[in-house]
C-alpha cells in the first residue's frame, strides 16, 4: 500500500448544491417548455393535416392572399396542400375577397401574390420593399439590380434584334443613366430561342410574345391602381390607429391632473411614445408612464410660454382696432408698453392653460385702458418736455408742438445711420418711439430693461417699451429746418408742426446728373448735408403732377391711421375719412377742404415724406 493518500473531493459550499439544482431545474423547465411548444405546434400541424381537404380549403379561402403564402412556408406538408393544383380555388377565392385583379398570364396565383406582397428580393431574399420592376415582374433589391440586369450588349450576342422583341423582354429603365437594362437569364433565354427559329417560326413566336406582353402590361396598370388604393387605405388605417393611441394617452394624462391643452400641442403628439400605431394597453401604459410623467412638466412650461406669446399677439391686434375707434387727441402706446401694464400683464401671465388666448380675456382690462393711456400721455409728455428744456431751458408744453421741436433716440441713431438715415420725431409722434434692444443686450443699450420671456419675439432685435427710451433734441435737424425756413421765408421757430406739414416746403438739388426734389421732413432725416440745396422753382414739373405747394406726400396707408386733427375742435384725432365725416356731421361743413384739418403723423418724418426725381418743363410745355 502506497504511503500517498488518495485525493478527496472538497465538499461544495453550503449553497452550491442548491444553485446547481436551480440551474438544472431552470434548464429542464426551458427544455420542457420547448417540448411543450413543439408538441403543440406538431399537434396543430397534425390536426390540420388530418382535417378533410374540402373543409381545410374552405377555411383557407377566408384568409388574406399573403397569409396563404406565409402558411405555405411553415412546413412541407402544408406547402404541398396549399400549392397543390386542387387548391387553385382557394387562391382564386382569397384573391377575389381581397379585390385583387387577375394574375398575369405568365404567373401562377402564388407567384402573383408573392410579387405584390412579399417584401423580400426574389433573388437574395433581402428586404426590397417597394422595388418592383413591373416591366420585368420581379421584386429586386439594389444590390441584385446590378447583378441580375445587364445592358443590351450582354444579351444580344452581337445580333441586331428587332425593337418588337426588345419590348417584350423583362427590363427596367434607369432614369439616371437614361439606359434600359434587361433581366439577364430570362432575356438571354428568349433571345436564344428567337435566334434559333426559322424566319417564319420566329415571326409567329414574336407575335405571340408581343400579344402576351400587351396583356401583361394591361394587368400591370390594374395592379398599380389596386396597390395605390391599398396604400391609401393603409395610410388611413395607420392615421386612425395613431389618433386612437393619442386619444387614449390624452385620457390617461388628464387622469394624472394635467390640462388637456397640453395634449393638443404638436410636441406632445409627435413624442416618440405617443406618435405610434400600437394600441395602448394597460401593460403598454405602465411601461411608458414614467417617461411621459417626466416629459409633461417641461412641456407644460413650453406650452404656457407659447400661450402667453399668443395672448401678447392677440393684445397687439386688439389695441390696433381699439385705437382706430378712438377720437381723443391722446396717442395710444404700442402693445410693448400696454402689455407690461396691469391688468393686462396679469391676464397674459396669470391665466392658466385652459384660459386660452381668445380676445375676450382682455374685455375687463380694456374698460380701464382710456384712463391708463391718458396718464401715460401726461408722464411721457413731461419726459419729452424735460429733453426739450435741455436745449431750450424756458420751453413750455406749447413749444413741443413747434416745427423746431425735433427729437431723436441716442440709442437707435447709430443703427439708423447704418441704415441710411436718422429717425427724427416731432411731437406727439416722439411719445410712441420704442427703442430697439436685444434680448440680452439691455446693458449695452445704456438703459435697464428686464422683460418677461413672453415679451420677446423669436428674432434677435426687439422693441423696448417707450418709457425706457431716452430722447434728446436733434440739433442738426433743428438747424436744417431753420435753413429751410430761411429759404422759404418761414419763421419755423413760431410755426407749429402741423402747419409745417401743410406747407411742406420742397427742396431741389442735383443727384447723379438729374434734378431731384425732397420734402423737408425727408431732408432732415436722410440728406442731412446742405450743399447744392435750393428752393423748388416754378419751371419744374413732376410727371405725377403732384407739384402743388401745399401737397403733403402721404400714402393711402397713412390716411387710414389716426394722423389727422379737426381744426374746428382740435381734441378730435382720427383717420382722414373719419375727420371728414366728423366735419360734415358735427360742424355741418358741406364742402370739406384741406384747410379744415391738420396732418399730424404719429411716425418718424422719414416715413411720411419721400424723394422724387424731377423733369424739366420743355419750352412751350
Summarize the SSE layout with pairings.
Blueprint lengths: L15 H35 L2 H8 L4 H8 L3 H7 L5 H11 L10 H9 L14 E2 L4 E2 L2 H7 E2 L1 H5 L6 H6 L2 E4 L4 E5 H13 L2 H57 L10 H4 L12 H43 L10 H4 L5 H7 L12 H4 L2 H23 L15 E2 L4 H6 L17 E3 L22 E3 L8 E2 L1 H14 L8 H7 L2 E6 L2 E6 H6 L8 E2 L4 E2 L14 H4 L4 E3 L6 E2 L1 H10 L11 E3 L11 E3 L1 E2 L5
Antiparallel strand pairs: 1-2, 3-5, 4-5, 6-9, 7-8, 10-11, 10-12, 11-17, 13-18, 14-15, 14-16
Helix pairs in contact: 3-6
Q: Look at the helices and sheets and give the structural class.
A: alpha+beta
Radius of gyration: 44 Å
- The counted number of beta strands is 18
Output the strand order for the largest sheet: 12-10-11-17
End-to-end distance: 150 Å
Largest sheet: 4 strands, antiparallel
Low-confidence stretches: 1-19, 441-446, 539-553, 614-621
* Mean pLDDT reading: 82
Percent range of helical residues? 40-55%
Could you explain how this protein is built, in words?
The strands form seven sheets. Strands 12-10-11-17 form a four-stranded antiparallel sheet. A three-stranded antiparallel sheet has the order 3-5-4. With 621 residues, it is α+β, with helices and mostly antiparallel strands. 48% of the residues lie in helices and 9% in strands. The chain is elongated. This is F-box domain-containing protein. It comes from Marasmius oreades (fairy-ring Marasmius).
Amino acid at each position: 500500500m502506497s504511503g500517498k493518500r488518495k485525493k478527496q473531493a472538497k465538499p461544495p459550499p453550503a449553497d452550491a448544491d442548491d444553485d446547481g439544482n436551480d440551474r438544472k431545474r431552470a434548464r429542464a423547465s426551458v427544455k420542457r417548455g420547448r417540448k411543450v411548444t413543439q408538441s403543440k405546434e406538431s399537434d396543430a400541424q397534425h390536426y390540420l393535416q388530418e382535417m378533410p381537404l374540402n373543409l381545410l380549403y374552405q377555411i383557407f379561402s377566408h384568409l388574406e392572399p399573403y397569409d396563404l403564402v406565409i402558411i405555405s412556408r411553415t412546413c412541407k406538408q402544408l406547402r404541398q396542400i396549399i400549392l397543390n393544383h386542387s387548391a387553385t380555388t382557394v387562391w382564386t377565392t382569397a384573391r377575389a375577397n381581397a379585390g385583387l385583379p387577375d394574375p398575369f398570364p405568365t404567373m401562377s396565383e402564388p407567384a402573383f401574390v408573392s410579387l405584390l406582397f412579399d417584401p423580400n428580393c426574389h433573388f437574395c431574399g433581402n428586404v426590397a420593399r417597394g422595388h418592383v420592376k413591373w416591366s420585368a415582374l420581379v421584386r429586386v433589391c439594389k444590390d441584385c439590380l446590378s447583378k441580375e440586369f445587364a445592358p443590351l450588349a450582354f444579351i444580344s450576342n452581337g445580333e441586331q434584334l428587332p425593337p418588337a422583341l426588345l419590348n417584350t423582354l423583362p427590363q427596367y429603365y434607369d432614369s439616371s443613366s437614361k439606359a434600359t437594362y434587361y433581366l439577364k437569364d430570362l432575356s438571354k433565354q428568349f433571345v436564344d430561342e428567337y435566334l434559333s427559329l426559322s424566319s417564319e417560326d420566329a415571326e409567329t413566336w414574336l407575335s405571340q410574345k408581343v400579344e402576351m406582353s400587351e396583356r401583361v402590361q394591361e394587368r400591370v396598370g390594374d395592379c398599380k391602381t389596386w396597390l395605390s388604393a391599398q396604400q391609401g387605405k393603409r395610410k388611413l388605417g395607420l392615421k386612425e390607429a395613431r389618433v386612437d393611441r393619442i386619444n387614449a394617452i390624452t385620457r390617461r394624462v388628464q387622469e394624472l391632473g394635467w390640462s388637456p391643452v397640453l395634449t393638443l400641442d404638436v410636441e406632445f403628439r409627435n413624442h416618440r411614445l405617443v406618435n405610434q400605431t400600437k394600441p395602448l394597453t394597460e401593460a403598454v401604459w405602465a411601461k411608458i408612464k414614467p417617461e411621459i410623467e417626466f416629459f409633461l412638466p417641461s412641456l407644460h412650461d413650453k406650452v404656457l410660454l407659447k400661450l402667453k406669446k399668443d395672448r401678447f399677439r392677440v393684445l397687439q391686434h386688439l389695441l390696433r382696432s381699439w385705437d382706430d375707434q378712438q377720437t381723443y387727441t391722446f396717442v395710444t402706446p404700442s402693445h410693448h408698453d400696454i402689455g407690461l401694464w396691469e391688468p393686462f400683464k396679469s391676464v397674459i401671465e396669470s391665466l392658466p392653460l385652459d384660459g386660452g388666448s381668445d380676445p375676450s380675456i382682455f374685455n375687463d382690462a380694456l374698460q380701464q385702458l382710456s384712463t391708463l393711456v391718458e396718464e401715460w400721455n401726461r408722464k411721457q409728455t413731461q419726459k419729452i418736455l424735460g429733453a426739450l428744456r435741455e436745449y431750450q431751458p424756458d420751453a413750455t408744453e406749447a413749444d413741443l408742438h413747434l416745427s423746431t421741436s425735433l427729437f431723436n433716440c441716442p440709442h437707435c441713431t447709430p443703427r439708423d445711420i447704418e441704415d441710411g438715415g436718422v429717425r427724427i420725431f416731432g411731437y406727439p409722434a416722439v411719445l410712441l418711439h420704442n427703442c430697439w434692444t436685444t434680448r440680452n443686450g439691455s446693458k449695452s443699450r445704456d438703459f435697464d430693461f428686464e422683460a418677461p420671456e413672453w415679451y420677446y419675439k423669436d428674432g434677435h432685435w426687439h422693441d423696448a417699451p417707450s418709457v425706457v427710451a431716452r430722447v434728446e433734441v436733434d440739433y442738426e435737424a433743428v438747424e436744417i429746418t431753420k435753413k429751410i425756413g430761411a429759404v422759404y421765408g418761414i419763421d419755423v421757430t413760431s410755426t407749429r408742426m402741423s402747419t409745417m406739414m401743410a406747407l411742406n416746403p420742397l427742396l431741389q438739388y442735383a443727384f447723379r446728373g438729374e434734378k431731384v426734389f425732397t420734402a423737408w421732413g425727408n431732408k432732415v432725416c436722410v440728406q442731412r448735408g446742405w450743399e447744392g440745396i435750393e428752393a423748388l422753382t416754378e419751371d419744374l414739373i413732376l410727371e405725377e403732377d403732384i407739384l402743388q405747394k401745399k401737397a403733403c406726400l402721404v400714402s393711402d396707408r397713412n390716411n387710414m391711421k389716426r394722423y389727422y386733427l379737426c381744426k374746428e375742435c382740435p381734441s378730435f384725432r382720427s383717420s382722414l375719412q373719419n375727420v371728414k365725416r366728423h366735419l360734415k356731421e358735427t360742424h355741418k361743413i358741406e364742402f370739406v377742404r384741406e384747410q379744415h384739418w391738420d396732418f399730424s403723423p404719429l411716425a418718424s418724418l422719414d416715413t411720411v415724406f419721400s424723394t422724387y426725381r424731377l423733369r424739366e418743363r420743355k419750352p412751350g410745355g
